[in-house]
Design a protein that fits this description.
Helix content: 25-40%
Number of helices: 9
Order of helices and strands: EHHHHHEHEEEEHEHEEH
Strand content: 15-25%
Oligomer: single chain
Bound molecules: adenosine-5-diphosphoribose
Number of strands: 9
Structural class: alpha/beta
């Protein structure tokens, strides 16, 4: 059985990572246009670096929760038959034990150089004078995070997994941002069973055959155990 799982901010909520779409429309006090667009970065790179430095530092204060660990357990059983896609830029899936995670919106622990485009691992503070380890350019290092208007990572691999899957599960995502919000329809068209795990009704809910209403930390381990019992 081939399974594709898409996770969003909700899977990390119980670990203490804030979700994005709070009712005030701000991300931790910032407008999305200021901290999550290439134009915002051009206007004020220092502010953007500060925003991501804060989020990167916050990773030290959070731990994976039972939902991340349950998906790692599922990977141990399914191997390459599981494709785990996350929109999250935290490393909680990896720290929960998952070995193969497609970070379609990038990662707080990666950087890229706007001159040579080489991606690389990053820890600690990034500033307007950070130096690219490859081409040595100064001031052109930016977080390897996919901002609005930019192309997500791994799309070919994701599409191949979606058209071949038997089950598609969406966990903790509001279904507000494309292309991820459209994955359920691709999987459904291929005849896959589609399941959504979320405590709230999402704008995408009607596309799913099955709804599991509840928090990821409880419902994901329960769903994984049931699946492994049936196997
Ligand atoms: N368990 C499961 N889901 C939860 C939990 C929980 N404990 N708590 C909240 N949720 C759900 C909310 O109901 C909501 O549907 O998580 C979802 C979070 O939605 P968003 O904040 O919109 O996050 P996400 O869907 O991941 O955002 C997608 O948008 O801003 C961009 O690039 C950013 O990757 C992000 C993308």
């Amino acid at each position: 059985m081939k399974i594709v799982i898409l996770t969003g901010a909700g899977i990390s909520a119980e670990s203490g990572v804030p979700t994005f779409r709070a009712s005030d429309g701000l991300w931790e006090g910032h407008r999305i246009e200021d901290v999550a667009t290439p134009e915002g970065y051009e206007r004020n790179p220092g502010l953007v670096h500060e925003f991501y430095n804060m989020r990167r530092a916050h990773l030290h204060q959070v731990e994976p929760n039972p939902a991340h660990r349950a998906l790692a357990k599922l990977e141990q059983h399914l191997g390459n038959d599981l494709t785990l896609i996350t929109q999250n830029v935290d490393d909680l899936h990896e720290r929960g034990g998952s070995k193969r995670v497609l970070h379609m919106h990038g990662s707080l622990l990666r950087a890229t150089c706007t001159s040579c485009r080489e991606p690389f691992h990053w820890q600690g503070i990034m500033t307007v004078s950070s130096k690219c380890p490859f081409c040595k350019a100064m001031g052109l290092v930016r977080p390897a995070i996919v901002w609005f208007g930019e192309m997500p990572y791994h799309l070919e691999e994701i599409e191949a997994a979606l058209v071949a899957c038997d089950v598609f599960v969406s966990i903790g995502t509001s279904g507000a941002v494309y292309p991820a919000a459209g994955f359920v329809q691709i999987a459904h068209l291929q005849g896959a069973k589609t399941i959504e795990i979320n405590p709230n009704l999402t704008q995408n809910a009607h596309h799913f055959a099955e709804q599991i209403q509840g928090n990821a930390g409880t419902e994901v381990p329960r769903w994984v155990e049931e699946l492994l019992d049936q196997a």
